[in-house]
Amino acid sequence: MKIIIASDHAGFETKQSLINYLTESGHEIEDLGPVEYNSVDDYPDFIAPAMQNLQKNHNSLGIVLCKNGVGVSMLANKFKGIRAALCFNVEQAKSSKIDDNANVLAISTQFLSQEEIPQVVDVFLKTPFGNAERHLRRLEKVMLVEEENFK
């Protein structure tokens, strides 16, 4: 699976570790930065291009990282077709895929341990959308709102 990944300085080291882990697991990784640690970088400079890339690669998934995960998830969700989920445990990651068909996982490097992060990522990547009628109906309503707001 192709995974588009980006972070800011607070997620840089974890991003590098995840890239190694995911590559070893057989995934194709596209790293949208940063490529080196810079303590004063800004997450929009990396997350925005990653989401633009993901919009063009519909069969890919995204992973975005920062200190609390909030900023990267808020920015990611500004892009049409992006459904970013900020997940703090495996149950939430699983639910975000089954119920909401999330296509971007937002990770907090402050509130998740280095041991928990790969577990959350694995569940997110392996869990399929549930396709339940109620979830399809809700996602259709989300897409209608999205269409109205992106005219």
Computed CA radius of gyration, to the nearest angstrom: 15 Å
Strand percent estimate: 15-25%
CATH topology call: Ribose 5-phosphate Isomerase B, Chain: A
Total strand count, please? 5
The low-confidence parts are: none
**The first-level CATH class name:** Alpha Beta
- The structural domain count equals 1
Structural class: alpha/beta
Q: Can you give the helix content as a percent range?
A: 40-55%
Give the name of the CATH superfamily: Sugar-phosphate isomerase, RpiB/LacA/LacB
Number of helices: 6
Order of strands side by side in the largest beta sheet? 2-1-3-5-4
Return the average pLDDT rounded to an integer: 97
Q: What would you note in describing this structure?
A:
A five-stranded parallel sheet has the order 2-1-3-5-4, sandwiched between helices. By secondary structure, the chain is an alpha/beta fold. The chain has six helices and five strands, in the order βαβαβαβαβαα. It has a single domain (2-149), classed as Sugar-phosphate isomerase, RpiB/LacA/LacB (Ribose 5-phosphate Isomerase B, Chain: A), CATH 3.40.1400. α4 packs parallel to α5. The mean pLDDT is 97.
